[in-house]
Amino acid sequence: MDNSFGSIFRITSFGESHGELVGIIIDGVPAGLEFDLKFIQREIDRRKPGQSHLTTPRLEEEQVKVLSGVFENKTTGAPLCLIIENKDIDSSVYEKYRNFLRPSHIDYTALRKYRGFSDPRGSGRFSGRITAGFVMAGAIAKQILKKYEIMIFAYTKSIGNIIDKREYSLKEIKKSFELREKSLIGAIDQEKSKSMELLIETVKKQRDSIGGTIKCIVINFPVGKGGPIFNSIESNISKAIFAIPAIKAIEFGAGFKAAKMKGSEHNDPWIIKDGKVQTTKNDAGGIIGGISTGMPIEFTVAVKPTASIGILQKTVNIETKKNVEIEFSGRHDPCIVPRVIPVIEAMIANVLLDILLLEGFIPRVLKS
Predict the structure, then answer these.
(1) What confidence tens digit (pLDDT) does each residue in 97-144 have?
(2) Dihedral sign, CA of 279, 285, 289, 291?
(3) Which residues of 242-272 are buried (b: 16+ CB within 10 A; e: fewer)?
(4) Residue 104 CB neighbour total at 10 angstroms
(5) What are the DSSP E strand ranges found in 164-296?
(6) Which residues does residue 247 pair with via DSSP β-bridges, in sequence order?
(7) Which of 61, 84, 126, 244 gives the lowest tally of CB atoms within 10 Å of its CB?
């Protein structure tokens, strides 16, 4: 397994869903950063299970513990090690279905790859539980990026076929933050949010699950960062995004709509505004040739329906080599989208901070 990501701001993930803990080691954190544990905890609380009737009933305290890298409330430049203990664990259902290949789960591919030695409980290393470590690292990265007025904001754009098609003005970003916090599913449009919540409740009663999309916007990222050919911003963001379980697609700017557009429609005209070079629109998503344009970086990701559902499904008993049916009864989210929002923000923060450290835009030792 490759459990590390990044060049200078390098994160190493460890732990399993039903093991003793999950955690992250973060190397390359600039020395001198005021360590804000409360902010890290708030970010983790956005991701944790059991927040409403629309999420899994698994109840975890999610208390962040710091093992290294901080002295007198400042980062030292040494690796940071942050952990969260797993306490509300019920592995009995996984033992019951140990020989059953759960549809759309990691069971069969992990079995062939690791020959039966990987931890099957709660999908082990392949569980969304490991993203708690991503969020802890992202919280550190966000604190540093904030010093340079770089802000990251993600929200639920769609659940099933209910879509918020509105494009939000950057001038409304503060209001958008406030509206998102009022929504159980991280949506901005409150009427759409109610419809999305109702759809999730309906699917939950059917013992099924539903997917959706998340849009992410990065504001004030400097122009001219990133680069060709295999180190483009899109490449690095995409690799980070697909490290998140349940992500099935990503598009930047106009994305797949670009395939239906003419050049005259898709091209972003350059203008001078307030003494700065800008574009009149942003179908490029803030990136051209793998390099930042200075416009907001914008992308949308697709989150698949949770694979564990309570509906009878066809599968295989790998021990008897017979076709069987399975009705899985574990504790799972009917829709994972709301809990993925802080993970998306975190991974983008990790990627962008690494780029800015590599290019010397952000120093290895921060000014007090």
Answers:
(1) 788 888 988 888 888 888 888 777 767 688 889 999 999 999 999 999
(2) positive
(3) ebbbbbeebbbbbeeebeeeeeeebebeeee
(4) 13
(5) 212-219, 247-252, 270-273, 276-279, 287-288, 291-292
(6) 303
(7) 61
Across the beta sheet with 80-85, the strand order is 4-5, 10-15, 21-27, 80-85, 65-68
Total domain count for the chain?
Answer: 1
Residues in the chain: 368
In a domain, 120, yes or no: yes
Residue 197 lies in a domain: yes
Q: Is residue 365 part of a domain?
A: no
- Of 57, 75, 76, 87, give the one whose Cα is nearest residue 333: 57
The dihedral built from the CA positions of residue 166, 48, 101 and 93, taken in this order, carries a sign that is negative
3-state secondary structure string, 323-340? EEEECCCCCCCCCCHHHH
What is the domain extent for residue 275?
Answer: 4-358
Question: pLDDT per residue over 321-366, tens digit each?
Answer: 999 998 876 668 899 999 999 999 999 999 999 999 999 999 999 9
For residue 190 the two structure tokens come to 């409150």
Tell if the pTM clears 0.85, that is, is over it.
yes
- The domain that holds 323 is classified in CATH as 3.60.150.10
Residue 99 forms part of a structural domain = yes
DSSP bridge partners of 158: 163, 213
152 HSE (CA, 13 A, CB side): 26
